[in-house]
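Re: that chain you flagged

S.,

Sorry for the slow reply, it's been a week of failed gels. I finally had a moment to sit down with the sequence you sent. For the record, here it is as I used it:
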Amino acid sequence: MRMMIMAMTLAVLLVACGEQKKDVKDTVFAPQVKALEKARSVEGTLKQGAEKERKAIESSENSSDKSGSAGY
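Prediction finished late last night. Pasting the structure tokens below so you have them in one place:
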């Protein structure tokens, strides 16, 4: 029994001190990781475009309000 506990302890220590973690890009998930990074980049670009459009709409609404026309 004592020998079994020693063997299990040694096995746990060896596994814990074993191989370092691999980078995700070195695994089978590399294509998915690249796709996710690209999607995040595109999302940022779309958000910037939407913000520019929103500001343009607000500025056109403000300028039409200042001109005094009802807009109809």
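What I noticed first: Residues 30-67 form the longest helix (38 residues).

Talk soon,
D.
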